[in-house]
């Protein structure tokens, strides 16, 4: 028998609010099974299917944006190139954290 997840558990796995899952169930977007005790359960295969669709859709559309903030406290520091050094360090750090970061 396939494992069933309660609405709250499934919402945590899928990263949506429990009310959203209930609405999806009403609209027929997800399959919900009622147990003998009347408790709603979402089959594991249904959750896996939703995660698979989400992963594909997000990978296709997702755009990574990073904001880098650097500052110097004096004009002399700016002239010495401190600001450029800070920005270069920040760019390297961001690229290490996310290899999909695109250079401009």
**Helicity, as a percent range:** 40-55%
Decide which structural class fits the backbone: mainly alpha
Biggest sheet details: 3 strands, antiparallel
CATH topology of the largest domain: Multidrug-efflux Transporter Regulator, Chain: A, Domain 2
Strand content: 5-15%
Number of strands: 3
- Uncertain stretches of 5 or more adjacent residues: 54-61
Tell me the domain tally. Answer: 2
Provide the spatial order of strands within the biggest beta sheet: 1-3-2
**Shape estimate:** rod-shaped
What's the CATH architecture name of the largest domain?
Answer: Orthogonal Bundle
Give the class-level CATH name of the largest domain: Mainly Alpha
Distance between the amino and carboxyl termini: 52 Å
Mean pLDDT: 80
Helix and strand string, N-terminal first?
Answer: EHHEEHHH
Q: Work out the helix count.
A: 5
User: What is Rg?
Assistant: 23 Å
Features:
104 residues; mainly alpha; Multidrug-efflux Transporter Regulator, Chain: A, Domain 2; 2 domains; three-stranded antiparallel sheet; rod-shaped
How would you sum up this structure, described in words?
- This protein has 104 residues and is mainly alpha-helical.
- A hairpin with a 5-residue loop joins strand 2 and strand 3.
- The longest helix has 18 residues.
- It is rod-shaped, with a radius of gyration of 23 Å.
- About 8% of the residues have low confidence.
